[in-house]
What we know:
Distance between the termini: 118 Å
Strand content: 5-15%
Radius of gyration: 28 Å
Largest sheet: 6 strands, antiparallel
Strand order of the largest sheet: 1-2-3-4-5-6
Amino acid sequence: xxxxxxxxxxxxxxxxxxxxxxxxxxxxxxxxxxxLPGVSIGINQxxxxxxxxxxxxPVYYAPRGDVNLFFYDGLYWAYQRDNWYASSWYNGxxxxxxxxxxxxxxxxxxxxxxxxxxxxxxxxxxxxxxRWGEHWGHEWEQRRSGxxxxxxxxxxxxxxxxxxxxxxxGNRYPRVEEQQALQRExxxxxxxxxVVRQHYQQQGAQPQLGERKQQPQYRPEQVQGRxxxQGRxxxQGxxxxxxxxxxQGRNK
Length: 252
């Protein structure tokens, strides 16, 4: 009985050790979400990725690795676990993007430029975009009708890459609030796509983590009122200065 009990204990320890090893390995593969509302999506880019323009499209793709990573109009776009995510930095944090919020040029990327496409895409043409209508349903296809059609002669030029991010990797990868400050300082590109501009505005509207003092927000009419008030104060100051100078002149 003691022998059987010892064997059972050894078996249990071996199983426990295997589970711990698997969990440690999985944790090493997952990119840590740096801040809200970013999420961890299982992508870890240890350094600035190599990005190549998709021929005929204003989109870059990452040819190396096993990640569906793209860059379009100033943002990184990743397709992971049947969802789209966006980020202003190459290793996140990532923001979930719903089917209605994916730019059309991202949807148009041919299947062959997905480094890790879902197995169901194997029967689709590699030189054509994924069948998003089949994937997301008829209602989505009706709302986004014409997404795969455009005049290639009047194509949009690719946005410049934020190459300044190459110097930030490993332990130097910045926190969320630092990312936003660096982006404003070093990357002056403004998105051309209306959908991407909305993503930019949403990111800018999010409060920065660790920010202790917030700037007061004013509505347009409040701003105009403040400007008028400042104008009155300035005028009153000028009048007082003129009266003071006149008084000095009389004293002389």
